[in-house]
Amino acid sequence: MSEYAVLGKNVPRIDSKPKVTGDSKYADDRAAPGCLTGRILRSPHPHARILNIDTSQAEKIKGVKLVVTGNDFPNVHFGQWIFDETLFVRDKVRYTGDEVAAVAAIDDDVAREALELIRVEYEELPAVFDPEGALRPDAPVIHEDFEKTKAIFDVRDRQGNQACKTRFHHGDLDVGFKEADEVIENRFTTHPHHPAYLETHSALAEYDASGNMTVWLTTQSVFKVQEVIGKLLDMPLSRIRVIGSTVGGGFGGKKPRIDHYAAAMAYKTRKPVRITLSREEDMETTYQRHPSIVDIKTGAKKDGTLTAWDFRMLMDTGAYADHGPSILAMGCFHARGPYKTPNVNIEGRLAYTNKTISGAFRGYGNPQANWAVESQMDILSRTLGIDPLELRYKNGMGDGDPMVNGQRYPEVNLRETLESAAEAVDWGKAAGTPANGKKRGIGIACGSHPSGGMGSSAIVKVMPDGTAQVVSGVIEIGPGEYTIAAQVAAETLGVPYEKVRMVTADTDGTPYENITAASRITFNVGHAVRLASEDARNELLARAAEMLEADVEDLDTGDERAFIASAPDRGLSYADVSKAANIHLKGPIIGKGAYSPSPPTPALENIEGSAVHGFPTHAFVTHIAEVEVDEDTGEIEILRMICSHDIGQIMHPGGLGGQVDGGVTQGIGYALLEEMVYDGGVLKNADLVDYLIPNSLDIPTIEHRFIEKPDPAGPYGAKGIGEAVLAPTASAIANAVYDAVGARIMDLPITPDKLLRALDRM
Amino acid sequence: MSEYAVLGKNVPRIDSKPKVTGDSKYADDRAAPGCLTGRILRSPHPHARILNIDTSQAEKIKGVKLVVTGNDFPNVHFGQWIFDETLFVRDKVRYTGDEVAAVAAIDDDVAREALELIRVEYEELPAVFDPEGALRPDAPVIHEDFEKTKAIFDVRDRQGNQACKTRFHHGDLDVGFKEADEVIENRFTTHPHHPAYLETHSALAEYDASGNMTVWLTTQSVFKVQEVIGKLLDMPLSRIRVIGSTVGGGFGGKKPRIDHYAAAMAYKTRKPVRITLSREEDMETTYQRHPSIVDIKTGAKKDGTLTAWDFRMLMDTGAYADHGPSILAMGCFHARGPYKTPNVNIEGRLAYTNKTISGAFRGYGNPQANWAVESQMDILSRTLGIDPLELRYKNGMGDGDPMVNGQRYPEVNLRETLESAAEAVDWGKAAGTPANGKKRGIGIACGSHPSGGMGSSAIVKVMPDGTAQVVSGVIEIGPGEYTIAAQVAAETLGVPYEKVRMVTADTDGTPYENITAASRITFNVGHAVRLASEDARNELLARAAEMLEADVEDLDTGDERAFIASAPDRGLSYADVSKAANIHLKGPIIGKGAYSPSPPTPALENIEGSAVHGFPTHAFVTHIAEVEVDEDTGEIEILRMICSHDIGQIMHPGGLGGQVDGGVTQGIGYALLEEMVYDGGVLKNADLVDYLIPNSLDIPTIEHRFIEKPDPAGPYGAKGIGEAVLAPTASAIANAVYDAVGARIMDLPITPDKLLRALDRM
Fold it and tell me: Which residues in chain A (239-258) have CB-CB distances under 8 A to chain B?
């Protein structure tokens, strides 16, 4: 199937053997003699003023080496886009879990005992937990000093609890609605959703006598950790080394915070400090998918042609903005789905509430938007009496159609995914009525997700025995990032895959890499490794030409040799060239490569607030769900899940399949099961017993259909689909449920109790 | 004194704070949970055939995880130049200490118990311990399979126990002796000398489920360790990571062997294995300075002009050749000192004996040659009645004079060092007679040593905050290698020294570096770091030009900024440029540099055997010793030690002073105290109680005189003197002792008993 020697093949994955044998070293596995245990004192209140903190009793306990509060550190404001965070809160706490103080002690028991002895006087304040309430004029203001925080993001209309606002618009909405034969208007809401990675957050920090900090941790970006620690401790970045340990699941949520505390306490104590979160603390204080409220008003002609699309999204960012502004922007970017509509207005608002911080989670605003868009499209098809598949064919984007931010899609493979998915289920055949009395239904939903944003770089070294190392700042978070990078190097250099080793995720030893996120690694790291491998190959050729006293233009490579194309016997092995390079000539064979997409789209007239960066490519997907609903219990069984994906060049079929299965499973959890339940700002199901993630019995065989069509922009035609796979899953399931029982659930997740209520069975 | 911002200044040394605070991590400090202790079973006989090895009893002990012999590994022959070694001996043992088997056990007690239960049947063979005896036709042959071993060195005349032979010659010796008015002939001998570093050898190896080996150890070259392990275990070099821990003294002797055993056992057990040598085992089984026998026959005219120089050197390499062939070649390279002689014959032979392996030790053959040459020159001056200083002025080399290998010295600063040293002591004044009845004397000796051989490379990274990292494979062994490299980067980039961090000695993360040895680091790493820094600075300028929309030719740098030379306000900080580079543009600022001197001198007609590589520069030195000798006890007190050194550009005055003090101290130990005493092939003083190294009471204040004259070939004019400092020390002391009491000791060390015997007092 593949024209390549290594790409497209199911080579053994680099991360699989250590993972299945238990050999992988996670952050908490790392030995550190004399290591102290760090623990954080967190707010028990959702919103309260701090009147006094008394650490004197805690400091007296034997074995306590350090007790710190905000007063022990510079009052640095930081944040992903809006600088609304500090290392420890000083003035007031803003959610149940906010960091108030921390201790470092000889063991966990002593640390916990010390936490209990820190006396904090609070004055409780009125709190607000829902984003609409937060935006009312009488709502308690969560960030009074809002104006004082700096933002590196162009955030407009910051006021009260509104952290930021964004708007895209083109055409004329009034005209669009006037042209419409039907106008429908609906509200769709989503819930907080936790990544529920198996490994909780963990970090170990050491600070040495030379003034160098080393941090080992579970993270998706060692370079971002380096940047924040440098800022918080006012340290030169050259002296901060961050090493990524094996990541036991990331999904966007492995944006560390506890490393700040471990590093700060290592800096003060000059001893190693480790902090590992319990499952409860992890779920209570790390990042969740933004809850959202979306109102859509759609105008369409009788034949299904969309004429107007008015989309208003409100996202709940919790106590701090974190990634919120750009997640909101990306939610709005996906606000009209992959459909052409001449008149569009899209508005997003981000609200602070006194809850856990919302943040990045696979999909990054897309699943919330998709849920609203694809439900609305299904409702429209029923209203107009047009087949949902036909409605999508009719309005679906094509090559060159504009995105909401004014850019144009270079290539749109939407129709191909629709056709392929429809073919798989023989779309249009009757759903049938099973003998068990349950109801069957089928639902379809589409989506797309960009890939390729932000910068990557790589170094490729050819060793004196002709084997190679790919030196990259990237960290593997599960889908096979290391394997694909090694495949690209092997393919480009012409070296067997087994001879390529990945050297990764160490800010000292590996070149800059932005983050393992945003469906970007196959695309960006793929490009950077390709370029570095080409550079190394060129260097091999140049050195070989010198050694062979030949012109470099006359040389070719093959079988791990550089040789004279017209006389293949006259050549040198890569090993010979590399060995000589180390000994005499111009130094070792070190190829460099860097890739970055074009700079962000300049602010256009029709964009207000947060701009969405330009992306070099987009993957399109169609999911079809077949469900069986028990109207007595409200139970939903997924019978089939057809996932048809536009994928460019397939790099590793096994890894791709795993990526789809994992993403769709997470989408099924989002649709039916996973919900973080809050009561008065307190998370009530902060464990994996009460927070339900899908198990093997909840998941059907996920059927894959791939549109393999190399993307001209991608490395060897590849693109990323890490997030696209998840976008339309919940929508397809909801549409199938409606198809089965005629009840439309507008609020995720679709739980039995909601369904029974909708069916008037409760 | 210095025209530079950073070079030539006593900036705080990078290695000093961790060393004085105890924060440095030596190889044995490294934690490794579940680590096994490795121990090696060594031969109790100097020469014996192995009839049988029975490990069955040892394997039965609880806690023993592995027992291995040569049968468990491929029969790979390896060695520095001659491939005469194997991981474990199979056929026969060749010295008391040869590796026969090894165990890995849960702790050291169990490992030692297991060693005792390994039953080895030996058939003892006649042994030979002196190199002249070893070369006799009837001597027991130590390497019967000699012809089967491969050599990467052009070793001629290998026969019997003669490992190799080397010869340089030019002119006509017969003519030279005919022209001479005086001919003198003497034999000078030296003893085995141990580097006696404070930290013994230690290595920890881990082998992971992905097939990657990691070795932490005390070494002078991580890349050489990588190469040997790859060969021994037949592993791709890309999968072997070697990390250098803090080195507690090297001096050439930190060429590891135990890492081979640790790695081999980690490979078999899949568990971490550590081996740390006790002081006894370290002295018995690591490398010593070659004992030597030198015969010199010299012809000179009455006016002191040298006419003929016949030098024959026999070195004792012990059981294996190791560095012997090139140490012999370097000894012969120094065979006529820094003196012009038209007719020269130099011959060297390397003999195997049944003793500990001789190897690299600061000076690398030079101290042995210097001892003979400078003693001979002193005898000649007495014979001819010419002042020793005058004799050296008369015959001393000048710019462009030829070396023994046919190359020419680019610059000779010998006369300057002679003048400076003579001035310091007011040469020619009477020595005086002290009131204590002891005898005073003064002695002079000269020497030179090359620097700059072999390849170095470096990477210089500019971080997003404008600070910098120097990424280099070099490992600090004490004299300040890291500090000088950071100074060069700071000077070249124009960044404060404090903002530069060294990232070093890790084969995964740092580019190729040959070895910290051969007085080469300041020169070679200096060049590589300079080039990499220039490359990084050029990259900063290019990026800044793009951002400023200016021509790169119009830009300049200063104050950590790149700016338009004619409008300095229009500029960007390094931080701004570097941050932008990571985010959008062409990837991070990574400068590369590599330096290597010209390839080895092609074999010339007048060189037989081992060629000596071409060196880009040489440092010249003169030492003058003033001593006081007690003729009743034979005790020698050094009153003054004047060390006058040709140094090029001084990079770090404090480090330079330490380098001289340390080298001269080692030279004093070589002259008077340190001797490894063997009896029947067994080392009798394998500890630091009976093996005497100089303490503070043995050492006078060492007076430094530096000829600071930037070397056109060096980085910013610098050159290396790590070995030059040691070369003439023993010779100067011996000449002073003769001057004091008229007794000439021809055999090092000059101990009280030898002196009393020479004075007929014993």
Answer: 239
List the beta strands (DSSP E) in A70-106.
92-93, 99-105
Spatial distance between the Cα atoms of B105 and B36, rounded to a whole number of angstroms: 5
**Rounded-to-integer distance, Cα B125 and Cα A593, Å:** 61
Angstroms from B408 CA to nearest CA on chain A? 20
Residue of chain A nearest B524, judged by CA positions: A587
- Whether the CB of A212 is below 8 Å from some CB of chain B: the reply is yes
CA dihedral defined by A726, A390, A170, A81, rounded to 10 degrees? 0
Helices B729-741 and B653-668, packing angle to 10 deg: 50
Contact yes or no for A587 and B18 at CB 8 A: no
Residue type, B632: D
List, for residues A426-455, the tens digit of each pLDDT value. 999 987 888 899 999 999 999 999 998 888
N residues, chain A: 762
The Cα–Cα gap between A663 and B267 comes to 38
Alpha carbon of B482: minimum distance to chain A alpha carbons (Å): 12
> How many residues does this entry show for chain B?
762
Alpha-carbon distance values, B743 to A367, B296, B370, B635, B675 (Å): 95, 19, 19, 13, 21
In this prediction, residues B207-223 reach a mean pLDDT of 97
The answer to whether residues B732 and B374 touch, using CB atoms and an 8 Å cutoff, is yes
Distance from C-alpha of B526 to C-alpha of B718, rounded to nearest angstrom? 8
Q: Which two tokens stand for residue A638?
A: 């997924």
- Distance of alpha carbon A253 from the chain centroid: 7
- As a whole number of angstroms, the distance between CA B37 and CA B242 comes to 19
Could you give the count of Cα atoms lying within 13 Å of A643 in the half-sphere of its Cβ? 29
Is the peptide bond preceding residue A694 cis, with omega within 30 degrees of 0? no
**Residue B280: Cβ within 10 Å count:** 12
Q: Are A445 and A370 in contact (CB under 8 A)?
A: yes
Residues forming a β-bridge with B444: B624
Contacts of A53 (CB under 8 A, 6+ apart): A69, A100, A101, A118, A119, A120, A121
Largest CA distance in chain A: 87
- Rounded Cα–Cα distance for residues A514 and B464 (Å): 12
From the list B14, B528, B599, the residue facing A210 with the nearest CB is: B14
ipTM: 0.94
Give the C-alpha separation, A619 to A519, whole Å.
10
Angle between helices B526-548 and B481-493 (to 10 degrees): 30
Neighbours of A253 (CB within 10 A): 22
Which residues of chain B make contact with A510, given a CB cutoff of 8 A?
A: 509
In DSSP terms, A294 is beta-bridged to: A188, A313
Which residue, chain included where needed, has tokens 């499952």?
A: A279
The angle, 0 to 180 degrees and rounded to 10, between the axes of the packed helices B414-425 and B388-395 is 160
Token couple for A426:
């023989």
CB–CB contact A236 B593 (8 Å): no
**How far apart are alpha carbons B340 and A312 in whole angstroms?**
93
Retrieve residue B239's tokens. Answer: 């999968």
Q: Is the preceding peptide bond at B402 cis, omega within 30 degrees of 0? A: no
Contacts of B468 in chain A (CB under 8 A): 238
Express each pLDDT in A377-419 by its tens digit: 999 999 999 999 999 999 999 999 988 888 889 899 999 999 9
The answer to whether A238 and A269 are in contact (CB under 8 A) is no
Q: Which of B210, B463, B584 sits opposite A14 (nearest CB)?
A: B210
- Residue A233 is predicted with a pLDDT of 96
Whether chain A has a CB inside 8 Å of the CB on B580: the answer is no
**Confidence category of residue B603, pLDDT binned at 50, 70, 90:** very low
Quick count: other Cβ atoms within 10 Å of Cβ A406? 18
Q: Give the dihedral of Cα atoms A655, A656, A657, A658; nearest 10 deg.
A: 50
Which chain A positions have a beta carbon within 8 Å of B454's beta carbon? 583
